[in-house]
Design goal:
The protein has 213 residues and is of the alpha+beta class. It is 45% helix and 11% strand. InterPro entries: Rv2466c-like (IPR053977), Thioredoxin-like_sf (IPR036249).
Length: 213
C-alpha cells in the first residue's frame, strides 16, 4: 500500500511511442477514478526490447526502431532524472496526446511542445539524440520486463499480490479505452486472472487498430 494516501500502488511501464500502451494508459487513468489505486509511471523501451531479435522483425518495424524509438523515451527518462519522478505521467500524457491522438508523430517539434506544456525546458529535447541516461533507461526497462519475461511488449503493469509480492502482466490490449464502470470491470477481471496461480495468457486476433478518443 502507498504510505501517504492508503491507495494501492500500480506500477506501469510504457514506451511513449507505442499506441497500444497509450490506449492501456488512458484506461488506467480511468481506473484511478473508480478504484482506490495510484499509478506510478516508469519507462521501458521498444528499442531495447527488440535489439537482440531485429532479424526476426519486418523491415518497416526495424526502420521505426532505428529512426524513432530511441528519441521520445530518452527524453522521458532525462526529464525523470533531472526533474523528479512525479513529472513522468504528465509528460507521457502530453507526448502521447500529440503522437497518437493528434497524429503529429514522434517529431522534435511535438516533443518540444509537450515539454513546454508541462513546464519543462525545451532543451530536454536534445536528449532525443543523447545516450546520457541510457543506463538509467535500461535499468528501468529491466525492472519491468523481468517481472513478466521477454516474450511480451509494452505496457507492463505490476500490482501487490495477496502475499505481498507483486503480480505483473502485459496489457491488457484494448481499444477504445474503457471508461467509468466499464474500466472498473476490466480492472477487476484483469486482477482476477493475473493473480490466479499458473495463469499465463488470454488472447484473440485484433480486428481493429487503436481508437483514440
Amino acid at each position: 500500500m502507498s504510505e501517504n494516501n492508503g491507495k494501492t500502488p500500480v506500477d506501469f511501464w510504457f514506451d511513449p511511442l507505442c499506441p497500444w500502451a497509450w490506449m492501456t494508459s488512458r484506461w488506467m487513468l480511468e481506473v484511478e477514478k473508480v478504484r482506490d489505486v495510484e499509478v506510478r509511471w516508469h519507462v521501458m523501451s521498444l528499442a531495447v526490447l527488440n535489439e537482440d531479435r531485429l532479424d526476426e522483425l519486418p523491415e518497416e518495424y526495424r526502420e521505426m526502431l532505428a529512426t524513432q524509438a530511441w528519441g521520445p523515451v530518452r527524453v522521458v527518462i532525462a526529464a525523470q532524472q533531472e526533474h523528479g519522478e512525479e513529472i513522468t505521467g504528465k509528460l507521457y500524457t502530453a507526448l502521447g496526446t500529440r503522437f497518437h491522438n493528434r497524429g503529429e508523430g514522434a517529431t522534435r517539434e511535438a516533443v518540444v511542445a509537450a515539454l513546454e506544456e508541462v513546464g519543462l525546458p525545451a532543451e530536454l529535447a536534445d536528449h532525443m539524440d543523447s545516450d546520457a541516461y541510457d543506463a538509467e533507461l535500461r535499468a528501468s526497462h529491466k525492472e519491468g520486463i523481468e517481472k513478466v519475461g521477454q516474450d511480451v511488449g509494452t505496457p507492463v503493469i505490476a500490482v501487490p499480490g495477496a502475499d505481498g509480492e507483486q503480480v505483473a502482466f502485459f496489457g491488457p490490449v484494448v481499444t477504445p479505452a474503457p471508461k467509468g464502470e466499464a474500466a472498473a470491470r476490466l480492472w477487476d477481471g484483469t486482477l482476477l486472472v493475473a493473480s490466479t496461480p499458473g495463469f499465463y495468457e488470454i488472447k484473440r486476433t485484433r480486428t481493429q487498430g487503436p481508437i483514440f478518443d
